[in-house]
Amino acid sequence: MSLYPTLSHRNEEPEKGVLYIVGTPIGNLNDISNRALNILKNVSLIACEDTRQTKKLMSRFSISNKLISFNQHNSYKKISSIIDNLKGGYSVALVSDAGMPSICDPGEDLIINAKLKNIDVICIPGPCAAITALVASGMPSSNFCFEGFLPKKKVEREEIFYKISRNEQTTIIYESPHRIIKLLKELKDFCGGEREIHVSRELTKKFEEHVGNTIDEVLSYFENMEVLGEITIVIKGRKKSEIEKFNKPILKKELCDLIEAGLSLSAASKYLAKKNKLTKSLIYDLY
After folding, report:
1. Are 257 and 251 in contact (CB under 8 A)?
2. Do 28 and 58 lie in a common domain?
3. What is the bridge-based pairing of β-strands 144-149 and 67-69?
4. Which end of the chain, N or C, is surrounded by fewer C-beta atoms within 10 Å?
């Protein structure tokens, strides 16, 4: 296969045997591009996260096409048949419910398999909640880290919180509304209540909302209200000049004593952090 692009005019009619990754609106349907609409109208078939959601988009723009379901529950069963269709000369568009496919969805696996089979993969760019929230936050955006939805297992989750607490880059994460309070409290444990964050809710929709400042202030804002809509959190990086003023040897001995007494690293760190008014990540550093 040539090292040079084989498709020269990638904004017109779909070409045979090409997988098109199509970005769709994250809320406001007017954000879809003419190029994306043209691809959705003319490809052989559309692989979508939820056919019901994609039908709403297609109905809005009077588009009729063949849809197949492709999501986290059936992706491994569907990949081979989609690849077969592409190798047979069909053009396929991949879309998620909202935003760019493969960002926190199984589209990544399909793209990897397509490339392994020397199938052309073309991205039709569109909205992305992470980038939209980052730009709206006003935080440093030239260098950032995207974590997506955090794992549910405690050990894996705490490893990422620790990483975020030490990171000098801006960090972006996704969260569902019913877990936002828990996440903010965990962020406070590791980063301290004064760490600057920006929470975006219902991006591009009628009730779009942006809540910023410190973790403490944002937690206070959301704590006693019903939170709705998908949420994107932007966390400012740790300052290089941040200096930790505490007695490390004494704290380290206390930490080791607590662990030897039977407490887990997480429980011991939480106890010492609260006792000494420090962040949990600072205690983790001592172990």
Report:
1. no
2. yes
3. unpaired
4. N
Residue 14: strand, helix, or coil? coil
- pLDDT for 142-166, tens place per residue? 999 999 999 999 999 999 998 999 8
Lowest mean pLDDT among 72-86, 201-215, 269-283: 269-283
Is 13 within the bounds of a domain? no
Q: Which two tokens stand for residue 182?
A: 């828990």
Give 196's strand partners. Answer: 214
Residue written as token pair 């704290």: 251
Domain that holds residue 63: 18-127
Tokens 């609106």, located at residue? 25
CA 110/CA 115 separation, integer angstroms: 9
- Whether residues 115 and 135 share a domain: the answer is no
| H-only helix segments in the chain | 34-42, 51-60, 75-87, 107-116, 129-137, 154-166, 180-191, 215-223, 248-260, 265-276, 280-286
Same domain membership, residue 153 and residue 119: no
Token pair of 15, please?
């070409």
The phi, psi pair for 74, rounded to 5°, reads -125, 5
pTM (2 decimals)? 0.81
CB 147 within 8 A of CB 173: yes
Burial (CB < 10 A; 0-12, 13-18, 19+), residue 276, is: middle
**Domain boundary at 127, 146, 171, which?**
127
Closest CA to 191 of 230, 160, 222: 160
136 with 119, same domain: the answer is no
CA distances from 150 to 107, 158, 164, 184, 238 (A): 18, 10, 11, 12, 20
In the chain, how many domains are there?
3
